[in-house]
Design a protein that fits this description.
The protein has 10 helices and 13 strands. The chain is an alpha/beta fold and about 325 residues long. The protein has one domain: Rossmann fold (3-Layer(aba) Sandwich). Strands 3-2-1-4-5-6-11 form a 7-stranded parallel β-sheet, sandwiched between helices. It has a two-stranded parallel sheet with strand order 7-10. Strands 8-13 form a two-stranded parallel sheet. Helix 4 links the parallel strand 5 and strand 6. Helix 5 runs parallel beside helix 7 and helix 7 crosses helix 9. Bound molecules: nicotinamide-adenine-dinucleotide (NAD). The site of nicotinamide-adenine-dinucleotide has 28 residues, from helix 1, helix 3 and strand 5.
Length: about 325
């Protein structure tokens, strides 16, 4: 019999790619999303698939799924700085109350649950690269604290369910991931640069551009998550691409890729923006026999071509999200 999996955040960037992967692997997939930052277009190709069903639901409200469940992938959460600065309370609620609901459901169904944590649990790291033993350097009351602390709470409550209830849990510490279907103009480097390139604008570099990032292509990320879910390892595992680049060099790569004559313009560095981000993926290599395979050149080409293929209307909708109906309380 096919295994059943619930994927929260299914209409988002990573969630939708995970739905695709689990459908491909022969699972019955239940996608759940309240569409606060997600988009039904990310999963519209699945709607008629007999192994897929979609539940439009806010997981900060009680979560119920009829029938058995083998696995839960908990990916619902605003994920980009612009999103979580605009909807800080929703971000804290989905990481705390939403996670509690998912863990409760996993316990009720005796399902294994994997939660999407983040490199942001390391904050502005004082060790480099970051391995899973590092406790982090987070400013709880800074603007990014709403996301970082929600995710740290999420990890903590997940380990408590594991230790106290014996629940089978997995924690993926996801580092910066990109690819088709990500939202444009959401405050992250790659969407920002691609959006500016498509609009023919200059590329904005914050600070002097010497800060570094490491970007993981979505197919590699999905493979890492898939292996972690099916592993028997319950401590956190970093999943990301360790190839580091400065933002300035990356801006130059984008200009090469797009073949345009864009200039680089500099703006002040936002508060608490990490200077360095690079995963140590020794654990993922050892435990999951996983490491990224897609080069930045290859991944960026696929991503850029995808966005170039969208109509102006589609691009507009991917850039601007109206949160008003979600922020009454
Ligand atoms: N993309 C990355 O580089 C990255 C890095 C680290 C961690 N993550 C984590 O991965 C997960 C997915 O990120 P993403 O980039 O796909 O973001 P996304 O914004 O594209 O997707 C998140 C999805 O969750 C949904 N959602 C949010 N609150 C909800 C709620 N209360 N109830 C139901 N659905 C809700 C949104 O509508 C959206 O579809 C997040 O948990 C994020 O923290 C992502």
């Amino acid at each position: 019999m096919a295994k059943r999996i619930l994927i929260t955040g299914a209409a988002g960037f990573l969630g939708s790619h995970l739905c695709d992967r689990f459908i491909k692997e022969g699972f019955e997939v239940i996608g759940m999303d309240n569409l606060i930052t997600g988009d039904l277009r990310n999963i519209e190709h699945l709607i008629k698939n007999k192994n897929f069903e979609f539940h439009h639901h806010d997981i900060t409200k009680f979560v119920h799924v009829a029938g058995e469940l083998d696995y839960i992938l908990h990916f619902a959460s605003p994920a980009s700085p612009i999103d979580y600065l605009k909807i800080p309370i929703q971000t804290l609620k989905v990481g705390s109350i939403g996670t509690l609901h998912c863990l409760g459901l996993a316990k009720e169904k005796n399902a294994r649950i994997l939660i999407a944590s983040t490199s942001e649990v390391y904050g502005d790291p004082l060790v480099h690269p970051q391995n899973e033993e590092y406790y982090g350097n987070v400013n709880a009351i800074g603007p990014r604290g709403v996301y970082d602390e929600a995710k740290r709470f999420q990890e903590s409550i997940t380990m408590a369910y594991h230790r106290f209830h014996g629940l089978e849990t997995r924690i993926a510490r996801i580092f910066n991931t990109y690819g088709p279907r990500m939202r444009l103009n959401d405050g992250r480097v790659i969407p920002a640069f691609i959006g500016q390139a498509l609009r023919g604008e200059n590329l904005t570099v914050f600070g002097d551009g010497t800060q570094t990032r490491s970007f993981c292509f979505v197919d590699d990320q999905v493979e890492g998550i898939y292996r972690l879910l099916l592993s028997d390892y319950s401590d956190p595992v970093n999943i990301g691409n360790p190839h580091e680049i400065t933002i300035l060099d990356f801006a130059k790569e984008i200009i090469n890729l797009t073949g345009t004559d864009q200039k680089i313009v500099y703006k002040e560095l936002p508060k608490d923006d990490p200077m360095q981000r690079q995963p140590d993926i020794t654990r993922a290599k050892e435990i999951l026999n996983w490491e990224p395979k897609v080069s930045r050149a290859e991944g960026m080409k696929i991503t850029y071509e995808y966005f170039k293929g969208l109509s102006d209307d589609e691009l507009q909708k991917r850039e601007h999200k109206d949160f008003s109906e979600h922020i009454r309380r």
